[in-house]
Amino acid sequence: MASRRQIVGLERSPQQGTPSSMYIIVVGCGSIGSRMIELAIADRHEVVLIEERADRAEAAARRYDARVLHANIAHGDILKEAGGDKADALIATTSDDSANLMTMFLGRQAGIRSLVTLVSQTDHVPLFERLGVQILTDPDVIVARHLYGFVRQPAIVEFVTLPGGGDLFEIVVAPGSPLVGKSLAEVGEAKLLPESTLILTVERGELLLPGRGATTLQAADHLRIYSQSTLKSDQLRVFTG
C-alpha cells in the first residue's frame, strides 16, 4: 500500500443491515478485533475497520464484507474518513494502551455514543475511566477464569466473568439438590443462596421461566445465575446436591 490512508477493498459495498443495525468502527484487527468484526457482521451491522499494519488490513479486506482503512487513527482525519460523525460505536482492540486511549479521546471528541476499549495494563485504567468509556481489562485472565470455572465445577454449563465484576453462569439443578420443589420465594426465605446471587431465568425443556418468587424449581432445570462474587465449591452444592 502506497498510502497509510488508502482504503482497502473500497469497491466492496458494506453489508446492508436491518433498520436497527449499527454503524461500528473497530480499531485493530488482532484476534479480539477480528472476532468482534465477525460477530458484528453476522448481526448485520455496518462495520469499518481501521488497521495500522498493512498485512492485517489486506487480509481483513479479503476476508470481511467491510470497509477497511490502512491507517493510524491518530494521523489526520482518519476517524472522520471512517465515518465517525455517524458512528454508533467505536471499539479499540489493540494491545497498545496509548493507541486505545487516543482512540477513545478522539471518539469522545467526535461525540460517538458508545466507546469501548481493551486495557492491557490495569494501572492505566484510571486514565480511561476519566473519559467515561467502557473498559475490558486483562482479556487473557477472563478467558482463564472462564476455563477454570468449568474445571472447578463440571456441573456449570456456561461461565462468564463480566468486565464490570461478577459472574454470569448456567448450572443444572441435580435431583438431590435442596432447591428441588421449592419456589424461588422459599429459596430466598430459607437463605439457601448467598445474598449476592440472583437467579435470572429458569429453563425447563422448551420453557423459559422468569426468576420470580412464584417459580418452583425442578430437577434438571437450567438456571441462569448472576453472582457478584465467584461462588466456592461448597456454595455450589446447593445446586448439585
Kindly describe this structure:
The protein has two domains: 7-137, NAD(P)-binding Rossmann-like Domain (Rossmann fold); 142-240, Alpha-Beta Plaits (2-Layer Sandwich). It is α/β, with parallel strands linked by helices. The strands form two sheets. Strands 1-4-3-2-5-6-7 form a seven-stranded mixed beta sheet, with helices on both faces. α1 links the parallel β2 (23-27) and β3. It is 30% helix and 25% strand. It is built from eight helices and twelve strands. It has helices at 31-42, 54-63, 78-81, 97-109, 125-129, 139-152, 184-189, 233-240, and strands at residues 7-8, 23-27, 46-51, 67-70, 89-92, 114-119, 134-137, 156-161, 167-172, 197-204, 207-210, 222-227. Residues 21-143 form the RCK N-terminal domain.
